[in-house]
UniProtKB/TrEMBL annotation, chain A:
It comes from Rhodovibrio sodomensis. Residues 314-325 have a biased composition (Basic and acidic residues). Coiled coil: none annotated. It is a multi-pass membrane protein. This is Peptide ABC transporter permease. Residues 103-298 form the ABC transmembrane type-1 domain. It is found in: Cell membrane. InterPro entries: BP-dependent_transpt_permease, MetI-like, MetI-like_sf, OppC_N. The keyword Membrane applies.
UniProtKB/TrEMBL annotation, chain B:
It is a multi-pass membrane protein. It is found in: Cell membrane. This is Peptide ABC transporter permease. InterPro entries: BPD_transp_1_N, MetI-like, MetI-like_sf. The keyword Transcription regulation does not apply. Residues 102-333 form the ABC transmembrane type-1 domain. Keywords: Cell membrane, Membrane, Transmembrane, Transmembrane helix, Transport. The keyword Endoplasmic reticulum does not apply. Gene3D superfamilies: MetI-like. The chain crosses the membrane at residues 12-34, 108-128, 140-162, 210-229, 264-285, 314-336.
Length: 340, 342
């Protein structure tokens, strides 16, 4: 049960470097399924990020373009063909182009949403967990109340209220989504802070006269921040779904502001009855693949970074050849892991 | 025995008392949200359609000309007397909307929950038991896929395949028009109504309408439950008492089925309770997809029409329901697992 990481790092690099090593070490060591899951997740997510970055070069048409440069309108509800790889919608827009542009919207919104919710959830969670007392209790109550609320309802109402104030659909959606996820970061960070606060090294720092501010930024933060990558990735996956849900209900990105997969699916529901499959199938696959990619990435990171879940190969106990009747060997199957 | 019941009662009581500030926080939150909204709700809903004078009268009738703290007090007392006001756009009492459309939502959510619990627990136990085998990997992938698929995409596929393609199931609505008008309503839960009326053709029609939406919504929760039950079983299987049972020579199947499963399932009650918030979010999307005349569908309609009273009433209702469900779940949990009542 020797822990292979930590403590034996030869030279001490900067904070970021240390964090990077702490995260990358177990990844390099990971074996088997978690490793596969991690790489598949990284590949899918990476592909969509690339698509988002190079959208203008990949997409043959604009996201709201419904006619050729010569002013000739695209036929509507055209099945997939050479001109329109994935067909056209009821509004004569190109399904393939909208998916490519949509990737850009999703990535933009999710990055903003994760940043916003981290910017609030992380410091508030740290302070709440470290200070404790009535402040902590009040914050926990408020966050629990927010957390208990149906997330989509919260997001819709915020988006609904902001839609008149903010011109940018991306910003509105990102704020609406981040409100949903702040309680989750708060919870994780606060609980982690509380457990770290009781650690001997914090005690020691305090005994040596370190000021609370120093303790929080130097010792507690560095420990707590480790739980962020997993939560952030899984939340990113979830926020894609929330964004699509918002778009589906008409409260995400407006069609004039950008392409959004949830909105496309909403328009496609009416097509289903007529047997028109391409307008809904492809945006749907796009959502599923990006969410799956991010989830696999998060799950893989979790399996790899969380030592409690990391399966360890334990050598089956070999008795000096005394009783060796196959009946009893069933108890030390290789699959059963954990402390022995 | 006596001490046990008293402690349970004390726990239930303290939990109920704790629910009050929770409800108050949520209510203030809803109130705040609806009031920070720019513009005037009455004008937003009816603007341009009626005269200035009517607008003023409407505003006064709703108490919008009062100071904000009076409005807040009115709102809170209205909620506790179940008086949510009249909607601005279609002039119906919000309570009536909640009761009518709520029945549709309840029916949908109930059957979705039945599907989710059965499938989720079963698959979770199987995958957890067979950890790291191909079956486990398949089960986990299924869980991830189901989670990653938005309900409206699942609904779209269902409508495409079972509706338009095979023509097996109706793609939208709660019942065909014929049943809609002829079935006698006693509970507004159509399945129950059809059974009470003894009308089997209506029951078949209603169930056919229910299958797709309930399965769609149910699968969403199935994925979550599967993951939770699986992880839970894995943790239970690492428990000291499982180790102890093995050490005592208890056979492996007995260890798993008698010792681990039971304990792995205790927190499932809490999990199912926690899923209700997710379920309601899913219900809004499912109802919109299948044109199911539930609360979520109605909420979206009010949102689109900028009907603040309607929106506020339905959201308030959701908030209160969420808190009450959490109280009930905690209570059930304390009843099952004595460790909870510290």
């Amino acid at each position: 049960m020797a822990a292979p990481d930590d403590s034996r790092v030869p030279r001490r690099p900067g904070l970021l470097g240390r964090q990077f090593r702490r995260v990358s070490g177990p990844i390099k060591e990971s074996r088997g399924l978690p490793r596969v899951v991690l790489w598949i997740g990284t590949a899918i997510t990476g592909m969509w990020v690339l698509v988002a970055i190079f959208a203008p070069w990949i997409a043959p048409y604009g996201y709201a373009q419904y006619q050729t440069a010569a002013g000739e309108r695209f036929p509507k509800h055209l099945p997939p063909n050479m001109d329109h790889l994935l067909g056209t919608t009821v509004q004569s827009t190109d399904v393939f182009s909208r998916i490519i542009w949509g990737a850009r919207t999703e990535v933009e919104v999710v990055i903003l949403a994760v940043l916003f919710s981290l910017a609030i959830g992380l410091p508030v969670g740290l302070i709440s967990g470290f200070k404790g007392g009535w402040l902590d209790r009040v914050l926990v109550l408020i966050m629990d109340a927010l957390f208990a609320f149906p997330y989509l309802l919260l997001a819709i109402v915020i988006a609904f209220l902001l839609s008149d104030v903010l011109a940018s659909g991306v910003l509105t959606a990102a704020i609406a989504i981040s409100v949903v996820y702040v309680p989750q970061y708060f919870r994780v960070v606060r609980n982690h802070t509380i457990s770290v606060r009781e650690e001997p090294f914090v005690e020691a720092a305090r005994a040596m006269g370190a000021r609370p501010r120093w303790i929080v930024t130097k010792y507690v933060f560095a420990n707590v921040v480790q739980s962020v990558p997993v939560v952030a990735t899984l939340n990113a996956a979830d926020s894609i779904l929330t964004l699509a849900g918002l778009g589906f209900l008409g409260y995400g990105i407006q069609p004039t502001q950008g392409a959004e997969w949830g909105y496309d699916l909403q328009r496609a529901i009416a097509d289903a009855g007529a047997g028109i499959w391409w307008t809904g199938l492809f945006p749907g696959i796009a959502i599923v693949s990006l969410v799956t990619g991010l989830t696999l990435l998060g799950e893989g990171l979790n399996d790899v970074l969380n030592p409690l879940l990391r399966p360890r190969r334990t050598e089956p106990v070999k008795f000096p050849d005394k009783q060796d009747d196959g009946a009893e060997t069933g108890r030390t199957q290789p699959e059963q892991r954990g402390k022995s | 025995m006596a001490s046990q019941t008293t402690s349970l009662r004390a726990y239930a009581l303290s939990r109920l008392v704790l629910a009050v500030p929770m409800i108050l926080i949520l209510l203030s939150f809803v109130f705040l949200l609806m009031r920070v909204a720019p513009g005037d709700p009455v004008a937003a809903a009816l603007g341009g359609k009626v005269s200035q004078e009517v607008l003023e009268r409407k505003r006064a009738a709703m108490g919008l000309d009062e100071p904000i703290y009076v409005q807040f007090a009115d709102y809170i007392s209205d909620v506790f007397t179940l008086d949510f006001g009249m909607t601005i756009t279609d002039n119906r009492p919000v309570l009536e909307v909640i009761l009518n459309n709520g029945a549709a939502t309840l029916e949908l959510v109930f059957f979705a929950m039945v599907i989710a619990t059965t499938l989720g627990i079963l698959l979770g136990l199987i995958t957890g038991r067979l950890r790291d085998t191909p079956i486990d990997v398949t089960g986990r992938l299924f869980g991830i896929f189901v989670y990653a698929t938005p309900v409206f995409f699942l609904g779209f596929l269902g409508q495409l395949i079972f509706g338009a393609g095979l023509n097996w199931l109706p793609a939208s609505g709660r019942a065909s028009p014929m049943v809609q008008y002829t079935l006698e309503r006693t509970t507004n839960l159509l399945v129950l109504d059809a059974i009470i009326a003894g009308n089997w053709t209506a029951l078949w029609d209603v169930v056919r309408h229910l299958i797709m939406p309930a399965t769609t919504l149910g699968l969403l929760i199935t994925g979550v439950l599967l993951r939770m039950v699986r992880v839970n079983l894995l943790q239970t299987l690492q428990g000291d008492y499982v180790e102890a049972a093995r050490a005592r020579g208890v056979s492996e199947p007995r260890v798993v089925y008698k010792h681990a499963f039971r304990n792995a399932l205790v927190p499932v009650v809490t999990m199912i309770g926690l899923q209700f918030a997710l379920m309601m979010s899913g219900a809004i999307l499912t109802e919109t997809t299948f044109n199911w005349p539930g609360l979520g569908n109605q909420l979206v309609r009010y949102l689109n029409n900028r009907d603040y009273t309607g929106v506020q009433g339905i959201i308030t209702f959701f908030a209160v329901v969420v808190v009450l469900i959490s109280v009930v779940i905690d209570f059930v949990n304390a009843w099952i697992d004595p460790r909870v009542r510290y």
